[in-house]
User: Which sequence fits this backbone?
């Protein structure tokens, strides 16, 4: 049974940093051809869930979308079966609930991993508030 548990959210001042964690169970993040893609999303009330970044356990490829480019870094620790999202230079507009998700789907266009509808499993979310 696939489960994802996210953590690491909290209150941080503008310009600060946070590292979110997503611990996966029920599958391995070690490199393998049948691996999963783990994505990070965020959502504010009244808006759709927005794709931030994703990483493939097949070959370690990673992708970034929207405002994550240049400020956020996704990584994985196969030994801990955990995916991290390092967020730097945080802005008030980064305030949101952050979710990790997993999908087994394969796409020719990697940008499909930015869409929440393509993910089969979801963590419970962790809240990030950027405020002085």
Assistant:
């Amino acid at each position: 049974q696939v489960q994802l548990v996210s953590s690491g959210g909290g209150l941080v001042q503008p310009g600060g940093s946070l590292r979110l964690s997503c611990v996966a169970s029920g599958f391995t993040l070690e490199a393998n051809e049948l691996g999963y893609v783990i994505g990070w999303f965020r959502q504010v009330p009244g808006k759709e869930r927005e794709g931030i970044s994703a990483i493939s356990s097949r070959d370690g490829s990673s992708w970034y979308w929207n405002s994550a480019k240049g400020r956020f870094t996704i990584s994985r620790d196969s030994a801990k079966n955990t995916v991290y999202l390092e967020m730097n230079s945080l802005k008030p507009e980064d305030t949101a609930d952050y979710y990790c998700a997993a999908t087994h789907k394969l796409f020719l266009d990697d940008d499909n991993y930015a869409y929440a509808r393509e993910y089969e499993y979801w963590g419970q979310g962790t809240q990030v508030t950027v405020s002085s």
Q: What stands out?
A: The chain has a mean pLDDT of 93. The two ends are 41 Å apart (CA to CA).
